[in-house]
Amino acid sequence: MDERAIEKDIVTDFRERMSYGAYLDLDTLLSAQKPVSVPEHHDELLFIIQHQTTELWFKLVLHELLAARDAFDADDLGFALKCVARVKHIQKTLTEQWSVLATLTPTEYAQFRGFLGNSSGFQSAQYRAVEFVLGNKNAAMLTVFESDSVATELLTRVHREPSVYDALWRCLARAGLDVPESALRRDVTAPYARNDDLMPLITHVYENPTENWAAYEAFEEFVDLEENFQLWRFRHMRTVLRTIGHKSGTGGSSGVGFLQRALELTFFPELFAARTEIGQP
């Protein structure tokens, strides 16, 4: 028979044992999809699950980035970079996930988009927290979350704290590298801006990787992190363009134009600027 028998030691009685569903609280998780279209549109479930799973991944990204920052603070470079490496894999999953939403055609989306009101991914507190932890801080963004005390507390906290990039430079300074004071004492609540004082150190590390392998590896991990983020932003923009064209966003933004401008933002500008300097006579 084309059948696989249940092995005798497999547990089947969960009256007094923790089950898979109980551990994951699947009753809560699988009942959290609540379409609002009337009549309910078939494709709205896709739209909801796409964004809910994204928020779950953002939760893990934030968890790992904060752990990486703490590890840099504790001079545990190895664990910090392990956390960054995990984030990089999550980013690849998030980027590929856009291909699922891209199966939603303009006609299909138009049939339930009006029911979304002003809800928009722009209002994702976790996404903003991730950007803040990476250094792209914008105090004006806090006003979007004034009606949400939990989101406001999270964003206010990470806005005031050093970014993971700040933590990296402090870690490398304690390890004996010649990190300029301007990088160690900057206003961490301000949006990160390129610091040319860092260029000699970065260039030196890249030109002498064997003697500076830990810093060299950290720089490349951060370059990967930003590149993956930009790929995610690009796929986001192209998916929106494919689905709604140049319509305004439900949250009031210009839509594709607003997302295109995000591609000009950078988290770690010196690491990319160094590419131009390396090998110059």
Describe the structure.
The protein has 281 residues and is an all-alpha fold. The protein has 13 helices and no strands. Helix 6 runs parallel beside helix 7 and helix 11 packs antiparallel against helix 12. The relative contact order is 0.11.
Number of helices: 13
H/E series: HHHHHHHHHHHHH
Range of strand content: under 5%
What's the N-to-C terminus distance?
A: 74 Å
Let me know the average pLDDT.
95
Unreliable segments (pLDDT under 50, ≥5 consecutive)?
Answer: none
3D shape = globular
Radius of gyration, in angstroms, nearest whole number: 22 Å
SS elements, strand count: 0
Helix share, percent: 55-70%
Biggest sheet architecture: none
Oligomer: single chain
Structural class based on helices, strands and sheet pairing: mainly alpha
Can you give keywords for this protein?
281 residues
Topology at a glance:
Elements: H1 20-24, H2 26-29, H3 44-73, H4 77-101, H5 106-113, H6 125-134, H7 149-160, H8 164-174, H9 181-184, H10 199-207, H11 213-244, H12 256-262, H13 269-277
Helix pairs in contact: 3-4, 3-6, 3-8, 4-11, 6-7, 11-12
What does this entry show, briefly?
This protein has 281 residues and is mostly helical. Helix content is 59%, strand content 0%.
